[in-house]
Amino acid sequence: MGDSHFLRILALIVLLLQCALADNYECPQKCVCLEQYVDCSNKKLVSVPRIPEWVEQLDLSHNKLSKDVTGGFDKLVSLKIIKLEKNALEIIPSFVDCIQVREINLNKNNIVSIDVGRFPVNSTINTLSLNINRIRIIQEGALNNLTNLITLKLNKNEITSLPNHLFMNQSNLKTLELNHNKINVINGLLFQGLSSLTTLKIRYNNIDNIMDGAFFGFKSVNVLQLDNNKIKSISKGWMYGLESLHTLSLSNNLISHIDLGAWELCTNLEVLNLSHNYLMEIEGRNFQYLINLRILDLHSNNISSISQEAFSHMVQLQTLLLNNNKISWTVEDMSGPFSKLQNLHVFNLAANHIKSISSRAFEGLTNVIELDLRNNNITSIQPHAFDSMTKLSKFQLNTSSLLCDCKILWMVKWIKEKLEHKYVSATCAYPADVRGTFIHKLKEENCGDSPKPKIVEHPKSHLAIKNREANLVCSATSNPSSNMTFLWRKNNGNVSNPTVFENVTLQGQQATSVLVIPDVSQMDSGKYQCVVSNKFGTTYSSKAKVNIVTFPRFIKEPTNVTVRTGETVTLNCAATGDPPPEISWKKDGGNDFPAARERRMNVMPTDHLFFIVNAKTTDMGVYSCAAKNPAGTIIANASLTVLQEPSFIRVLENKEVTSGDSVVLQCMITGSPKPVIKWLKDGSPIITSDRHFLTADDQLLIIINSKSSDAGHYECEITNELGTKKDMIELKVLPPVAIMVKEENMTGIIIITVVCCAVGTSTIWVVIIYHTRRRMAGAVRNYPTESVKMTQVVHSDSESPHIFPDNISEHSSCKDSGTGDSAKQTSFDGVPTERSEQVHFETALCHSYSPVPEAHKLLPSSFKPSIQVCVNTCVTPATYSFSSHNSNV
Ligand SMILES: *[C@@H]1O[C@H](CO)[C@@H](O)[C@H](O)[C@H]1NC(C)=O
Ligand SMILES: *[C@@H]1O[C@H](CO)[C@@H](O)[C@H](O)[C@H]1NC(C)=O
Ligand SMILES: *[C@@H]1O[C@H](CO)[C@@H](O)[C@H](O)[C@H]1NC(C)=O
Ligand SMILES: *[C@@H]1O[C@H](CO)[C@@H](O)[C@H](O)[C@H]1NC(C)=O
Ligand SMILES: *[C@@H]1O[C@H](CO)[C@@H](O)[C@H](O)[C@H]1NC(C)=O
Ligand SMILES: *[C@@H]1O[C@H](CO)[C@@H](O)[C@H](O)[C@H]1NC(C)=O
Ligand SMILES: *[C@@H]1O[C@H](CO)[C@@H](O)[C@H](O)[C@H]1NC(C)=O
Ligand SMILES: *[C@@H]1O[C@H](CO)[C@@H](O)[C@H](O)[C@H]1NC(C)=O
Ligand SMILES: *[C@@H]1O[C@H](CO)[C@@H](O)[C@H](O)[C@H]1NC(C)=O
């Protein structure tokens, strides 16, 4: 206690000594002094009076100091705070002697520049205010000596640009204000050095360009105000250095675009003000990375479209201001666009052209306390729309357009039970008898159908083919009849310049709108929806997904190929399309590839190749390559020709036949193209007659009622482009066998010769009906021919598989066990009663083969048996003879 008393006295003595020693220790004239405080404000001073050197605080504000203050502050070594506000200074006075000065207020003067040489090295100044001057120019390095500056205010000047590296020495600066200037560009690295800056205000300038890295070096900035400039877009480039930013205001700019990923470098942002800009849509990733955002102000933009995922990152968001936009649709039709905002407390959707509210619009918003829906002409609100908002207490609604039909009664109840009425001033517009009634005063009374449009035909999802026309149809009814307007939307935005045909039917109660996409391109894919409004409200159709496909187009087409047997065949086929088409192959329109069965075929999808090795004639045919995708199918055909020398597939066999019997000579051949067969008997060409038939493409020579003159050497000569071959058969005709025949029974004999043969893949039935009249009995048969008919029935092997085992399918075969002995000849020379005829057939013919239809027709009408020919008889000519009393066929 004693010590401090002594020290105080000592200090007083020192002070008195100082005053006594100083030139002017007295208070300046007109001024008021209080200890080290000298107040010369409001004294109309035009020059700085003599100021005592002991001054620590000097107030010279509200005077008329102008140019001539040079030297005024020399030697003021103790000066700490000086106020020069509201004078007429044109330059900054020199403070180089004021080695202790901390605060200088030069607001409201006429200073036009900041020049070098005004502040001492390592200046102690920490606060410098130069608001409301006319500063245009800041000299390069002018602030270099102000190394201890903490606050610098340069608001309301005329600064258009700042020199580079201006703030290199301001590592202690915390607040920098440059509001209301004329800065238009922020160059990269402009603020380098401001490592302690926490607040930067550059509102009301002309900034339209923020260069990449403009804020680089800001390690500590947490408030950045760029409101009221001319910024057009937000990009990641200028976010470098803003890691600490928690408040960014960009209101009243011209922002219409936010780059994807823009916020990646400032994930600590908590408050973002983008109000009064030109944003039109919020896409899913526009606000990506803003996981800590608490307040998002988007009011007074031009937002009409919000994607489902737009706010899904912002779990922390507490305040979302979307008032004064055009987001009607999001609330009217989308389901749960805000559903991830579990922490939202304040939600403003005022003035958004919202006409109706769907039941799912506010799904997931469990913590909303304030919901503002004022200034929307809402006509209807679906039940349960606010169910999730159990904490809602301030619900603001002032529509006067409510459609008070039965469907609104839930709301009457909800307002009464859950809300404070004072914020709800909504009134009914329809039906007429309740117009103007406050919703919460509405009584439960007879109510009618909703007069909003009803969609009776929704647009349908489909695949649209590129470069063709695509249509989407939407029909709606309105009862009572009220003019409906249609609007088409695509991917949650309006369709620009749509081609739409509309027509109205049923006395104006039903209307149809057809959206025509005349020349579909890839850009037309998306989800389409029609929105129908009448004066009572708006109805949304379901969304139709239109996918664009392009028709397949060949880039490689197979070409006709000709090869010899044994060679390798290559067919090419490739096609493009969207989605990429699938390639498939067919042979002769079917899926049976002989080469595949024999493992000689290979399809190589990646090389678009189709191979057949060791080609055989069975491979011949038309190969079709089909390229198919949902848009359609295209087909390219190529014929494969396989050349093969003519050859005999069976050894030609010599034959013997009993005179009068039938015999078949076989010359079974192969070759490609199909060889021409020439039959020669003893060197001369065979002439077909009523006893000599050629069938099965001349491979069978059938001789009926053989005679000794038929004996001889039969030559079969076969020829195609690749050559000629011949071979020979010897036919012996044995003497006839004598048969006893009763004369009276021998008139009207019909001999049916059936030859069955396998040729290639077909069974050939040759039915020769030989009608004769026999008048004489005896050893020699005499068959004077009255008529001969031959018919050939071709049967595919698939219906008689027993005849052709698979392994011989490529050959022709006539399973003739030898006709020479006529062993299978069956002759019915018996009693011609109907009964006996039938007996004959049943015993002679067998059951496993269906009737030969042509043969049946050729039989006389008195013969009505169902002819069945046993498979086994197929191999030899079988001759059936019939006789009849009065047959005159
Ligand atoms: C810094 O102070 C020194 C010495 O007082 C002076 O010569 C110099 O011009 C000053 N620099 C600036 C940029 O004011
Ligand atoms: C200014 O301060 C720096 C660091 O504090 C010091 O190194 C330098 O000597 C000082 N300069 C003067 C002229 O006092
Ligand atoms: C101030 O900045 C100038 C130029 O960048 C530099 O040469 C000088 O050393 C700095 N002075 C202090 C005290 O940091
Ligand atoms: C956003 O900026 C506007 C205009 O400056 C202001 O009116 C509004 O209050 C700000 N929003 C928030 C949430 O601070
Ligand atoms: C708002 O968006 C609409 C299209 O939705 C556009 O026609 C209009 O020009 C925009 N208004 C402003 C001020 O950008
Ligand atoms: C809402 O209705 C009021 C009164 O009917 C009208 O003046 C106003 O223009 C309407 N607003 C909109 C956005 O349709
Ligand atoms: C409905 O549309 C028709 C034809 O466009 C028009 O003549 C009529 O005035 C409209 N009615 C109303 C109520 O707008
Ligand atoms: C109206 O639309 C329907 C359905 O698309 C159509 O069948 C009818 O021809 C259209 N009528 C007129 C007059 O265009
Ligand atoms: C391929 O062969 C088919 C018939 O076999 C024929 O119609 C077509 O013209 C041929 N194509 C070419 C390119 O020769």
Automatic annotation (TrEMBL):
InterPro entries: Cys-rich_flank_reg_C (IPR000483), Ig-like_dom (IPR007110), Ig-like_dom_sf (IPR036179), Ig-like_fold (IPR013783), Ig_I-set (IPR013098), Ig_sub (IPR003599), Ig_sub2 (IPR003598), Leu-rich_rpt (IPR001611)
Region span, Disordered: 796-833
Signal peptide location: 1-22
Domain Ig-like positions: 453-547, 552-641, 646-732
Start-end of Polar residues biased regions: 815-828
Name of the protein described by the UniProt record: Ig-like domain-containing protein
Alphabetized Pfam families for the sequence: I-set, Ig_3, LRR_8
Membrane-spanning parts: 749-771
Biological source species: Leptidea sinapis
Keyword annotations from UniProtKB, A to Z: Disulfide bond, Glycoprotein, Leucine-rich repeat, Membrane, Repeat, Signal, Transmembrane, Transmembrane helix
GO cellular component, one term: membrane
